[in-house]
């Protein structure tokens, strides 16, 4: 029995023993997504992960993703034990929006409704009026604009610019960025398109403007998988984390999926289309999380923060319903 299958059978045993379910993001490694599917868990975008975790009857959630996803699960289900393979799986958007600075920013613009992306800390969510994920960002900003509200958007500047362009709302943007999506390179993508003239270009809106401008479809992870199905093109050039290829290929088995280029001439690639924090979610770490729990693996959220963050999170889930 090799190491991988040892951990897989350990995880299956521990999931049963602990009355636990595996909730995995599309960007985790294919073997983790496969295991979540096989064991009755879920593989999805951040919105669906939140919904699945809060409605599933299991006592324990093992969240394979990054820390804000575990925190969101705990905020929505305080009675459940929420475990993660590692609590060090961060997100550059979350790290780039510290609560003290964010509080000052909001205090300077008290007339604005505060909308934050799910990729934020519990403290930043607690300060917000609304939480959103990329799958409902445009619709929510459109809705708030129709009510005449002026908006603070945080933390991703590219997604903020994208929703502003789509809605023409009055949006003031925090200047955060995702280190993965920020790396896609325009000229290299244009060259790739000339090599694959029949390919469609699929882009996550955390990518820079020039990349979004080349897209045939722009959307959240789940929307990009849907677009791969709907578009007639035989090939897809995909500008998001390559972890998505596992589910996308299942959805379009006959189409060829190609990674959008991350390193243009002379550029250094820091993340090469795979989130370094998502990559921390290995099989061994999942088995250890389920086995030991405790301070290395269990998510805790301060009660007062939890109660405050629950309000905008529930608004998000109600709006998305
Ligand atoms: P989704 O909400 O599209 O799953 O995106 C989460 C994320 O972290 C994108 O980088
Ligand atoms: Fe955060 Fe980017 Fe990783 Fe998504 S891909 S979790 S936005 S760093």
UniProtKB/TrEMBL annotation:
Pfam (any one): NadA
Protein localization: Cytoplasm
TM region positions: none
Cofactor binding annotation: Binds 1 [4Fe-4S] cluster per subunit.
Binding site for [4Fe-4S] cluster: 91, 178, 275
Entry keyword Oxidoreductase: no
Residues binding iminosuccinate: 25, 46, 117-119, 134, 204-206, 221
Keyword Acyltransferase: no
Pathway: Cofactor biosynthesis; NAD(+) biosynthesis; quinolinate from iminoaspartate: step 1/1
Reactions catalysed: iminosuccinate + dihydroxyacetone phosphate = quinolinate + phosphate + 2 H2O + H(+)
Cofactor section: [4Fe-4S] cluster
EC number: 2.5.1.72
Family: Belongs to the quinolinate synthase family. Type 1 subfamily.
NCBIfam families: nadA (TIGR00550), PRK09375.1-1 (NF006877), PRK09375.1-2 (NF006878)
Known role: Catalyzes the condensation of iminoaspartate with dihydroxyacetone phosphate to form quinolinate.
Name of the featured protein: Quinolinate synthase
Provenance organism: Pantoea rwandensis
Record gene name: nadA
């Amino acid at each position: 029995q090799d190491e991988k299958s040892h951990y897989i059978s350990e995880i299956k045993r521990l999931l049963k023993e602990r009355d636990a379910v595996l909730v995995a993001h599309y960007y985790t490694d294919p073997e983790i997504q496969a295991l979540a599917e096989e064991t009755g868990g879920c593989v999805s975008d951040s919105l669906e992960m939140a919904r699945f975790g809060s409605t599933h009857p299991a006592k324990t959630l093992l969240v394979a993703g990054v820390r804000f996803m575990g925190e969101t699960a705990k905020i929505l289900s305080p009675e459940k034990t929420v475990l993660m393979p590692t609590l060090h799986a961060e997100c550059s958007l979350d790290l780039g929006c510290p609560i003290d600075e964010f509080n000052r920013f909001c205090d300077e613009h008290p007339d604005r409704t505060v909308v934050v992306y799910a990729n934020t800390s519990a403290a930043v969510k607690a300060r917000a009026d609304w939480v959103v994920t990329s799958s409902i960002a445009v619709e929510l900003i459109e809705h708030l604009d129709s009510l005449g509200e002026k908006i603070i958007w945080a933390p991703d500047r590219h997604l903020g610019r994208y929703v502003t362009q789509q809605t023409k709302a009055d949006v003031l943007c925090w200047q955060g960025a995702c280190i993965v999506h920020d790396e896609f390179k325009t000229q290299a993508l244009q060259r790739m398109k000339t090599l694959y003239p029949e390919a469609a270009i699929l882009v996550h809106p955390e990518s820079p403007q020039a990349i979004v401008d080349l897209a045939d479809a722009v959307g959240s992870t789940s929307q990009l998988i849907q677009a791969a199905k709907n578009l007639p093109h035989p090939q897809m050039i995909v500008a998001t984390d390559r972890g998505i290829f596992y589910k996308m290929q299942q959805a379009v088995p006959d189409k060829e999926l190609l990674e959008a280029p991350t390193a243009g001439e002379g550029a250094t690639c820091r993340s090469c289309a795979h989130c370094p924090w998502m990559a921390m979610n290995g099989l061994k770490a999942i088995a250890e999380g389920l086995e030991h729990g405790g301070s290395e693996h269990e998510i805790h959220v301060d009660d007062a923060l939890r109660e405050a963050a629950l309000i905008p999170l529930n608004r998000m889930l109600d709006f998305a319903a």
